[in-house]
Structure formats: structure tokens, C-alpha cells
Amino acid sequence: MPLISFTDKGIFCAQGNFYIDPWQPVDKAVITHAHSDHARPGSQSYLCHRDTLPLLKLRLGPYNYQTVEWGEKINLNGVTVSLHPAGHIIGSSQVRIEYKGEVWVVSGDYKTEPDGISGVFEPIPCHTFISESTFGLPIYNWKPQHEIYHDIQNWVRSNEVAGKTSVLIGYSLGKAQRVLQALEEVTGNIYVHGAIWNVQETLLQAGFKLPAVNRITPETPKEAFKGSVIIAPPSADGSAWMRRFSPSSTGICSGWMQVRGNQRRRNADAGFALSDHADWPGLLQAIKDTGAQKVYITHGFQSVFSRYLNEIGIDASEVKTEFGTEDEEASTPTPEAAQ
Question: Which controlled-vocabulary keywords does the entry list (predicted)?
Fold first, then answer.
């Protein structure tokens, strides 16, 4: 029997009697990060990295939580479990599982370029590696983060000259914090949607240092938005909530913007391919660095990516999961109460 199996509740370690990022309630859940497709409510207990705890409390509410530091080993029914940096968002971790000398690593979501706030991705030697493939096509090859930040800054400056408010779309947990990094150099006049404000306040209370922002409320006068920058989640894009910022220019921050047609389809004025996931070269390098003899490919371009791995001599198989895509909030309605 393999150390890890794939069940209708999620990724399961029978020997340790725990699940990793289960999509149904279970007794023991080990959580890689706080995005809603990986952290779901209803389980009896949750194990996560210390930095993930406040975000889980925000999103799931009060539960039985246990936290560990990166690299700290714990014993679950004879199985040694430790969490290691994934570089995806704040607190995001890979799960290393060892039993009788056999090592599996469940990577969750990850990116290999350090972003300055999410921890630096750590390749972990293992026998079997479970990898996402959100951007598992050769077309996805990210520019360095500092270049994308420079593009965002120049775009904001040009909008200011044109008398337009800059509206940047990026999901509230992960992307918004990186966009704030980019904006620090060009403006201190930043307004955010309520969903982003909630994450901001949670992180500030947890001790993270983030740029100051203003929350958009129904009482915020329209004049306040002139010459400012707005950060909003994908769920707000195209909604009535956006009309108050006119005249404005909208830029979408997403790895999907690597394909120019996506910018046109989203009716955006600008697209910035800023992703919290590894690109094609990053995925390949991460997998090679593990030295894994077997690789399982989850959500994304599983068939293309796993086929390529097999062609270059890495034994790979597809696994279907309920994990989502980069824009986890894209289908979430935006109530006016969340302003």
C-alpha cells in the first residue's frame, strides 16, 4: 500500500491517518495554505504553519488548530511530518512525509522566484513528489518580479498624468500584498476593497509590515479616488462597485495575462503577468531538484505537463483533485456590504 493515496475526500496518508488539504471534512487536516480551494471548513483539527494560522481563522473561523515552524518535525502515528516553504503566499508550505525511509512531498501550490514576503521555495529531496501544474505550458515564462513591478509603476504614473484613477485587480490573499509592494515606490494614496482590507488587517495584527491603505466604504467621497490607486479582487471586476472610480484605467494582475487575448476578453486596459504560481521553467526545475523517482501532477495542464515529463525520462502520472486555479475569487459574488 502506498504511503499516500488519492481519495474522494482528498490526499490521504493512511499510516498517519491524516489528509492534506482535504475537500471534505475529516478528523485531521494538514493544510498547505489558506486559499479556499486548499483550506475548507468542517474538519475536527487542522495542522498548519504559524503564519497560516491567522489567515485560517479569518477564512474558516474557530477550530482546533495546531501550528509548527518550517522544518519542525512532528510524529503522527509513526509518520514524520514537517512543513517547508512553498513561496506561494504568506505561510504557504510543502508537506514532507516520511515513514520507514520512504519520503513523499506534497507541494500544494508553489512558486520558485522569491517575492520578499511569502518565504523562499525550498526543493526537498524525496522519492515521490506531488506537483501542481496551473501554468504547465511552455508559453508561461514569467518576467522577473522587479520588471513586472516596474511595468505596474510606469502604468500608474501614466494614468496619473492622464487624470485617471488606476484600478488593479488581484485576489485578496497573496496577489494584493505583492501589488502593494510594487506601489510603495509610486504612491501612498491607496484604497482597497473590503475583502483586501480584511486580509490586510489580519496580517498587520499578526505582525507583518505592510504599506498603509484606506478602506473603501459607501461613505468614501468620489473625490478621494482622484490620483489614487485602487486594489480590488477579481469578483469586483465589471461590477457596479467599480463605477465610482471613473475616469479610471483597469489593470489585471494574473498569470493568465501572459496570453494577450485574455486581457481583451477581460476588457482590461492593461494586463500584468504577475503570478503566485511557478511558470513552466520553474515547475520543471522544482521537480528535477527533488530527485523524485515518481511525480504526480495535479490541477492545471496535467495531461500536457505529465506527458512532457515522461518524454524527458521522469515517471509522471495525472491526478484529479478539487483544487482550483489562480483566480480563486473570480466566481465569488461581491456584495455591496463588502465595500
Answer: Exonuclease, Hydrolase, Ligase, Nuclease
Same fold, 5-139+277-338 and 145-272: no
Q: Is the dihedral of CA 161, 167, 172, 174 positive or negative?
A: negative
Question: How confident is the model at residue 108, as a pLDDT?
Answer: 96
- Would strands 18-20 and 28-30 be described as parallel, antiparallel, or unpaired? parallel
From residue 226, give the alpha-carbon distance in Å to each of 167, 182, 244, 274, 321: 11, 19, 11, 25, 44
For 234, the grid coordinates are 477579481
Q: For residues 2-26, give the mean pLDDT.
A: 97
Tell me, rounded to whole angstroms, the distance of Cα 118 from its chain centroid: 10
DSSP string, 250-304: EEEESGGGGSHHHHHHTT-SEEE---SS--HHHHHHHHHHHT-SEEEEEEESHHH
Q: How far apart are CA 196 and CA 59, in angstroms?
A: 12
Coil, helix or strand at residue 311? helix
Fold category of 145-272 in CATH: Rossmann fold (3.40.50)
Any idea where the domains of the chain sit in the sequence?
5-139+277-338, 145-272
Q: Residue 147: in which H helix or E strand, if any? A: helix 145-161
Q: Which CATH number fits domain 5-139+277-338: 3.40.50.300, 3.40.140.80, 3.60.15.10, 3.30.40.10?
A: 3.60.15.10
pLDDT of residue 329: 43
Distances (CA, A) of 60 to 56, 73, 77, 87: 5, 25, 26, 22
Confidence of residue 325 (pLDDT cuts 50, 70, 90): low
Residue 144 has pLDDT above 70, yes or no: yes
The CA distances from residue 301 to 78, 104, 117, 298, in Å, are: 35, 22, 27, 8
Instruction: Please tell me whether the overall predicted TM-score, pTM, comes out greater than 0.85 for this model.
Output: yes
